[in-house]
């Protein structure tokens, strides 16, 4: 099984209406993004006198996509080496809700022609896996991706039912499960870097933000509480006879949070890019657009509001996978009703955060 899409449309459980956490993660990349764009334009000013070409990899659907484009246009317009034109390629899997995305585009003037410094912005869809080739050789100046690269191309091979009820990596997963997930990430991230190395011209830049792990040993700490609580919810439903145990034991989510060292090693080993900068942002599980007004957690929300917020966030990406694997045998509404209660109990004891590495890379030139 691989990820096909998030919940589509603009309804109550859609990704478009439940991606507040991703929005906060995105804004946490701004400092690295802004510095990268400024340096790129200054260093390669002759390249951008006419048209700059960039890709948003794993753009999904919803207002976050508009936000990043608007922000990049704003940063470009403030530079004295401003390009006259900007081509933006929005990439995601073919089942992504591109229809909803481009409807939003048509009503957002900031992502049409931008009048400040006369930047003309042209936006295109580029469906396909970013673990495959997407663009011609040396055709891009810049690539950006956030909250996407931690999604694997597939469930690691050979897992079978060995992970039992865990559905992801936890402190109780067998060693072979850790090895399978780690190897799959290494293969996928290496492939991603190689392909982007072919597509981005020498001196071009790439900024990535992804879910990471704060400790080198994944057995020492359970860092992705939203997934482990979903596993607990499904286990409870097995005990109540609502879900078949064999179905749960064969269900695993294709997501991996690498350590800082795993990221650095893959970049160095693949060899297409120089690692210019890496920073880490901590983002609360219940973060939304008000998050940046607070130091750690969104303190003006009670636990119940926070737990429902996280439940809707998880449902937006997990529901298509649950439906594909369990079929009509599972009641998704019931799953996330129970899940919200478990998250409420978790928040009453402790708060948790996403560990998010933010990376700036430069495509090597022939002289590097």
Structure description:
This protein has helices spanning 20-28, 30-43, 63-77, 98-106, 175-199, 225-239, 245-249, 260-270, 303-326, 332-349; strands at residues 51-57, 85-92, 120-127, 140-146, 200-209, 273-284, 353-363. With 368 residues, it is an alpha/beta fold. Strands 3-2-1-4-5-7-6 form a seven-stranded mixed sheet, with helices on both faces. Helix 5 packs across helix 8 and helix 6 (225-239) packs across helix 10 (332-349). The longest helix has 25 residues, at 175-199.
Task: Describe this protein with a few key phrases.
single chain, alpha/beta, 10 helices, 7 strands, 17% strand
Gyration radius, rounded: 21 Å
**What percent of residues adopt helix (DSSP H or I)?**
25-40%
Major sheet: order of its strands? 3-2-1-4-5-7-6
**What order do the helices and strands follow?**
HHEHEHEEHEHHHEHHE
Number of strands: 7
**What is the overall shape?**
globular
Strand content: 15-25%
Calculate the mean pLDDT score and round it.
86
The multimeric state of the shown protein is single chain
- Runs in which pLDDT lies below 50 for 5 or more consecutive residues are 290-301
Largest sheet properties: 7 strands, mixed
Q: Tally the helices: what do you get?
A: 10
SS class? alpha/beta
Topology (SSEs and partners):
Elements: H1 20-28, H2 30-43, E1 51-57, H3 63-77, E2 85-92, H4 98-106, E3 120-127, E4 140-146, H5 175-199, E5 200-209, H6 225-239, H7 245-249, H8 260-270, E6 273-284, H9 303-326, H10 332-349, E7 353-363
Parallel strand pairs: 1-2, 1-4, 2-3, 4-5
Antiparallel strand pairs: 5-7, 6-7
Helix pairs in contact: 5-8, 6-10, 9-10
């Amino acid at each position: 099984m691989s990820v096909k899409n998030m919940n589509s449309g603009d309804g109550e459980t859609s990704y478009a209406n439940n991606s507040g956490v991703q929005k906060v993660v995105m804004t946490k990349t701004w400092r690295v993004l802004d510095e990268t764009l400024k340096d790129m334009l200054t260093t390669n000013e002759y390249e951008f006198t006419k048209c700059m070409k960039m890709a948003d990899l794993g753009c999904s659907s919803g207002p976050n996509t508009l936000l990043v484009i608007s922000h990049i246009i704003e940063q470009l317009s403030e530079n004295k080496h401003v390009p006259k034109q900007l081509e933006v390629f929005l990439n995601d899997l073919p089942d992504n809700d591109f229809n909803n995305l481009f409807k939003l585009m048509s009503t957002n003037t900031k992502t049409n022609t931008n009048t400040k410094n006369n930047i003309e912005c042209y936006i295109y869809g580029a469906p396909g896996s970013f673990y495959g080739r997407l663009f011609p050789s040396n055709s891009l100046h810049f690539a950006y991706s956030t909250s996407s690269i931690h999604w694997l191309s597939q469930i690691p091979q050979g897992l079978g039912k060995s992970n039992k009820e865990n559905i992801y990596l936890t402190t109780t997963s067998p060693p072979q499960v850790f090895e399978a997930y780690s190897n799959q990430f290494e293969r996928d991230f290496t492939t991603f870097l190689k392909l982007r190395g072919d597509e981005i011209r020498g001196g071009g830049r790439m900024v990535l933000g992804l879910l990471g792990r704060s400790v080198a040993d994944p057995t020492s700490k359970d860092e992705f509480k939203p997934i482990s609580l979903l596993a607990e919810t499904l286990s409870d439903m097995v005990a109540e006879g609502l879900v078949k145990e064999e179905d749960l034991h064969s269900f695993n989510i294709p997501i991996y949070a690498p350590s800082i060292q795993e990221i650095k090693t893959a970049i160095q080993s693949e060899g297409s890019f120089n690692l210019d900068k890496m920073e880490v942002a901590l983002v609360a599980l219940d973060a939304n657009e008000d998050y940046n007004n607070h130091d750690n957690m969104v303190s003006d929300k009670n636990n119940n509001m926070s737990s429902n917020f996280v439940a809707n966030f998880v449902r937006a990406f997990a529901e298509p996978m649950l439906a594909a694997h369990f079929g009509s045998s599972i009641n998704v509404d019931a799953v996330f009703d129970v899940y919200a209660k478990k998250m409420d109990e978790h928040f009453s004891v402790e708060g948790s955060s996403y560990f998010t590495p933010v990376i700036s890379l430069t495509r090597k030139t022939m002289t590097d």
